[in-house]
Amino acid sequence: MTDARSGAPAPLPEIDLEFPDPAVTGAAPAEPDPAPHLGPAQPAPAAPKGRSLRANTLIVMAGTLASRLSGIVRTQVLNLADNTLLDAFMVAIRVPNLLRELLAEGALVNSFIPVYKSLNAEDRRRMASAFSGLLIAVNLILMAVGILAAPWIVEAFIAADSNVDREVATYMTQLVMPFLMLISLSSIAMGVLNADEHFRESSFAPVAFNIASIVALLLLPKTATWLAFGWLIGGVAQLLVQLPALRRFGLLPAPGLSGHPAVGRVLRQMAPFTMTAGARQFLNLVVQNMLTNRALGFGAGTSAGYGVAEALFTTVNGLFVVSPVMAMFPRFAQHAAEKNWTAFRTLTAQGLRTTTFLTAPMSALLLALAPYAVSVINLSPNYDLARFAAATGILQGWALALLPWAVVTLLLRTFYARERTREAVTISAIGFVVEVAFYHLLVPRLGFRGFGLSTAISGTLMALALVWRYRAALGFPGREVLGHLLRVTGLAAIAGVVAWIAVNLLPFQPGFILPGVAGLAVAGTLGLGTYLVLAVILRLPEVNGVLRRLKR
């Protein structure tokens, strides 16, 4: 690639993720992606100067760590509620959480940023204003429909012979529906800030959500009304903390109904997400029906246990997968807008190596130490045994899914950045259908562990499909990435065995927070230490970044 102004070779943008690999960065370039629609409508602004991708990644990881830790505290406080209230709450928040994938954090951010990055400063402001106004109008309609249709929505989500109180779940569903508006506006703010690589405020916004929710949960009575309002108070906080940053950087959109041509581009990119959203809605419907089905042997507390496992899994996934990928996504979009496919492939390879190096040991440790991880949630020694068993079994299954879904998460963003949304979401939708099929096959036979194993299988198949399509368009460093995966999974397996042996030698049993923390500290440290020592012995290039970071 050459500089259009001087004709001299253009230097590659900084893409150092602290884990460089010369073998990968020196891979032979493939033919450019032939799709004619990838380029922006006008010259894209230059990438922000003075911002290291490594620094951006660390900011996002720090925000995610704070968010997940405060989220664990929020889950601990929620876990003090009884099964009737908490099971109903878990059903209620499924509805706005499903819609937010389409209108908020999923489709919106992944479709908004590539288009936004291709515009000049004035068009960015106009497009953000028009899009936020449209989003508010759509959300108002969906809120009204969701409140009115709550009884039928809840009926669809729970089994006929349900372990969930229908009336309580319906009431709470109606109360939490405004959360969709709050999270959608918050996601617009996040998209605008992230596109300009201002990650600090958007990364720490979920912390505000958790803190506000925790305060509400502690101060307000533990009733259905106040549990739902605590969720809404957190949504308000998450939006408000981002507004000063938008104003400071001159990025605050003024919502309006005036149109902009780029809004159509965003909507066209979002349109294929309806397929994914529909498939995921069907997936969550199946999951929720299974969790509430007494015929499968799942009693009261199962939905609450699923929520606990979900909180723990998303903590690890958010820190070691989502955070680096979020930091890389604007740079992916910039490379795609510039058609700099050499830098694009290099960033892909480095991102895959980084995320899998981090997630492989976490996967093994979650599998070995799941009972102790779940114990951290239990603030009272008189914890609910059914909830504990459900959370432990589901988390162990999900541990196997962590690594393949790390690959899927990063590769999906490479398709979104190239505006190949339809291709990506088609693979995702098919993957969700496959996952549902495995749920029906494995959950009745394996119980709680069947949920995670089904997710792991579908994630692996989706990763292979995404690699195949990526390779056809740009070329893929398959040999280097496969060799790396074999090394880190082998080391992670050894680390998991070490942690499992260590935890079985401890003189206490999991269940309560104190033995949970002690078990994680002892066995987790031994397992992770084993992984890093072996990585040093094998001279894995990724470990150098970790060692440099520890020395600082």
UniProtKB/TrEMBL annotation:
Keywords: Cell membrane, Cell shape, Membrane, Peptidoglycan synthesis, Transmembrane, Transmembrane helix. The chain crosses the membrane at residues 134-154, 174-195, 202-220, 355-374, 394-412, 424-442, 448-468, 488-506, 512-540. It is a multi-pass membrane protein. The keyword Membrane applies. Its main location: membrane. Residues 1-49 are annotated as: Disordered. It is found in: Cell membrane. Pfam families: MurJ. InterPro entries: Lipid_II_flippase_MurJ/MviN, MurJ. The keyword Transmembrane applies. Residues 31-46 have a biased composition (Pro residues). This is Peptidoglycan lipid II flippase. The lineage of its organism: Bacteria, Thermotogati, Deinococcota, Deinococci, Deinococcales.
